[in-house]
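Lecture 7 notes. Example A: sequence first, then its C-alpha cells.
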Amino acid sequence: MAFRITKDLPSAEEVVGTFPMTPAHRIQEHRDTGAEILSGRDSRLLMVVGPCSAWPIPAVERYAEKLAQLQEEVRERLFLVLRCYTQKPRTTLGWPGPLTQPDPRQPADIERGIWQCREMMHKVGKMLPVADEMLFTGNEGYFVDALSYLAIGARSSSDQEHRFVASGMFSAEGDCPVGIKNPEDGNLEIAVNGVECAQHPHTFAWRRHQVETDGNPWAHVILRGAKDKSNYDPASIALAARLLRQPEREIRNPAVIVDASHDNCRNGHGKDPLLQQHVVESVLSAKSRGYEGYDAVKGFMVESFLKRGNQKISPTMDMDGLSATDPCLGWDDTQRLIRDTADQLDRALSKSVV
C-alpha cells in the first residue's frame, strides 16, 4: 500500500488517562437523560447546539460557558447538549477539522489535535453534555467515554462499519444516543435502515478480534434535508415515523431529531442560519397540532457560535467565535431561539392542560 508512516500517535489509554472523565462530568447521567427523552418518558426536548466545527478552542470554551448558563434558565423544557464536532466530513476537499488539523492555517498534526480535542472535551464536559460526529471509527477510543451523544453523518449513514460500531461501541459504559442522518440525496429509508441496523446485534471483525454487539436501543433518525429540498415538512416527518414504526423492523424507541441547519435552512441562494428559527417554530407548531408522525420528534440540532455567519480560511482569520465551516447563528440569535423554543413548549403544555 502507498501509505507512508509520518508519525506514531499516542495510545488511547495514554490520552484518556491524562484527561480522565470523572463524576463531575456526569456522563452516564447525561446519556440516560437523552435516552429518557428519546423514549418519551421525559417530556423535554433534546437540543444539540453549538458550532459547526469546534474551533478555535478558546472560543468554544467561552461558548460552552454561555450555553451552560442558558441551560439553567430553560432546564424544565430543554436538555441542551454541546455540539463539539472535531472531525469534518468533506464531499471533495476542505479543512478536515481540529482533530486532524488543529490550526487550519498550519499543516496537519493529528497528535496535537488528539491532545487538544481531548483536553477541550474534558473542560467543556464539566459544563454540559458533549456531542461529536463519528467520522473515522478508529478514533473513537480517544473520545468515546467523554460523549453523551453521537451522530453519524449523511456521508457515513449507509456505511456498514459505522452502523455496526454504533450498535455496540458504548456497551461497556452504558447505551448512548446515536443519531443517524439521512444521506445527502434525502432518502429517508436509508436513514431508517441505519437505525434498524444499529439497534440490532452484530458479529464482526474489529481490531483483530471477532466481536459481538447487543444493539443500541437509542439509535434514531436525524432529518437534515437534501440537496434540492428540506425534509422537516409534514410529509417527510410522517414518512420517517411510519418507516420507524414498521413492525418487521423491531425498532425500539422510534424517534426523530430535526436538524434545523444544513439543507433544511436553504433560502435559494445558500444556507441562511437565521432560518433555523423558522424550522424549529414550524416543527413545534405542527407537533402541538398533533400532525401525523410529529409525536416522534424529540428534538433539534442547531448550528450556532459566538458570532453570526462564517469565514474562509486565511492568515487573518477571526479567532473570536466565527465559524470556519458552515454559517452559524450568533449568540444573541441562539439565546432568542432557545428561549422562544422553551416558551413555545410552555404555551403548548398550557393548552394541553386546559
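Example B, a different protein, same format:
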Amino acid sequence: MKTQIFFVLGPTASGKSKFALNLANKLNGEIINADSMQIYSELNVLSARPTINEQKKIKHHLYGFVKGDVRFNVQKWCEEASTKINYLVDKNITPILVGGTGLYIDSLINGIVSIPSIPEKVKIESDKMISNIGKENFYNLVKELDSDAMRNIAYNDIQRIRRIWEVNFFTKKKFSDWKKNKNKKLINLINYKILLFLPKRNENYKRVDQRTHLMIQDGAIEEVKNLLKLNYNTNLPIMKAHGVPEIQSFLKNEISIEECISKIQQVTRNYVKRQHTWWRSSNLKIFKKFHQFPNEIDINSINLDQN
C-alpha cells in the first residue's frame, strides 16, 4: 500500500472537518467519517455532519449511511472503512479519516478482538439495570466483576462500562480475558500518519457551548421531533446521542429551553473531557500532535512528507 493514509483526530467541536477539507485539497484526498454518531442518517445537526456544500467540494464517505434503528458497532465500521480505504488507494486517492471516536481508530489500526455478538435483549437488560440501581452502583458492580477491564475507565463512560458487563453476562467470561486473544486485523495499515489536535480543554469547552447554541438555531429541535416520530427503541445508541434526551425532555415540557441547552453543553463537555483523557493515554503512533485548534494551524507549515 503505497498511498499515504491520514487521520485527522481530536475531541468534538475542535474544527477537524474543515482542516480535513483543506488537507484533502492539498493531497488529492477524500474524507472518511470516523465518528460513531455521524454515521446515522437521522442525525445531521446534532452530529455536526459536514455541510452539503463541504461534501460537494470534496467527496465524503460513511456519513449518514446507517438508519438509527440499526445498532452499528466498531467491527462493522472497521469493515466499511477498510473497504473505502482500499477503494481509494487503488485509485491513487489519499484517504483522510476524520473523527473523535478513539475506539474506531484504535481498532482499525491495531485490530479487533473477536467477541461474540451481544443480543439485543442483553443490551436492554443492562439498560434496565442502570435505571434500577443507578450509574454509580452499576460502575461499582462492574468494577467488582472485572477490575482489569475497568482500569482507567471513567465513572461516566457508561457505554464502555455497559459493554464490559454485557460481555461478562452473555459469555460468562470476563471482558479482560477476551481482550487477551490475538486481535483480528481487517486491513494492514502501514503508511499512515495521525494528526492529533488536543487544544486547551477550557477553550474546547467554550467552543462546545457556542456550537450548542448554533445547533439549536440550525434546527436541532426539529431534528429530534422527526427522530421521535420514528418510535425507535430508546435503548438504541442514536436515542442517547448528545442532545437527543435533553431535547426530548424539553419537548415533554419537563425542562425549559435554557435548561435544555445547559444540559446539552454539560454532557458534551463531559464527553470532550473523556476524549482528551483517551487520546492522552493512547499508545497509537502519533505523527504530529497540536495543542491548538485546527483553524489555528497553517496546513502548508506542516511537513507531511516527514517520516
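Note on Example B: The chain is about 50% helix and 10% strand. The first strand starts at residue 5 and ends at 9.
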